[in-house]
Amino acid sequence: GANVLLLRACLVLLASPIYLLSFLGIWEPFCRKIFFPFILDKICVIHDKKSKKHKQELFRNLPDFKGPSGELRLLEIGTGSGSNFQFYPPGCKVICTDINPNFQDGLSKNMKKNQHLHFERFLVAAGEDLGQVPSGSVDAVVCTLVLCSVHSVGSTLREVLRVLRPGGAFYFLEHVAAEHSSWRYFWQQVCYPTWKLVFAGCCLTRELWKDLEEAKFSELKIQHISVAMPCMPIEPHIVGYGVK
């Protein structure tokens, strides 16, 4: 406990300019508009390489969830710049949502690259509030590296289940808390407050598998994996899907 607090204080000192800007109300808008999209782009390049085989495996059975019409309507929560598009099957109809509208450059680049998809629309919306999407209207929902920063995981999963048709599937790949007895968890606790401020609300110690188990999926497949991220406290991940 004391060690964690001492090291946290050291990190706060190191990041004191950011804390000051936050106190003055300057950091959050700058982070949302410029810093976060920029840094996320860089991190995503590394993360995409490291997680590519996991994503290929994860999305392999997406075509199994086509609706009665033979179409696959997919909604992605927290699309960012669209790094998952390459894994979606040809002809898939995609609704993109993100709480942050500042990813447009990367997003339009990835849309051009992935002409095998039909992009329906882009909604600026939080995962907890997908009110613009009718209940039971999509066959699949995808969410990768997003549940770490939503305000409420429970509300987000309730919205996921609402917009999915019966028999539809929710796909996820998320970083999670490490084993409590591990050094990794110790460093996650040390970094927690500063990391959350710098990375737009990202929480390092969420045990998301518990939220998924508590949600009302009729079938749930979760795998604990490790995605090696150099010098970053986000190595433990979960990957899988739940069926409504």
TrEMBL record:
One of its GO terms (molecular function) is S-adenosylmethionine-dependent methyltransferase activity. CDD domains: AdoMet_MTases (cd02440). The chain crosses the membrane at residues 6-27. Gene3D superfamilies: Vaccinia Virus protein VP39. The keyword Transmembrane applies. Keywords: Membrane, Transmembrane, Transmembrane helix. InterPro entries: Methyltransf_11, SAM-dependent_MTases_sf, Thiol_S-MT. Residues 75-172 form the Methyltransferase type domain. This is MET7A protein. It comes from Cnemophilus loriae (Loria's bird-of-paradise).
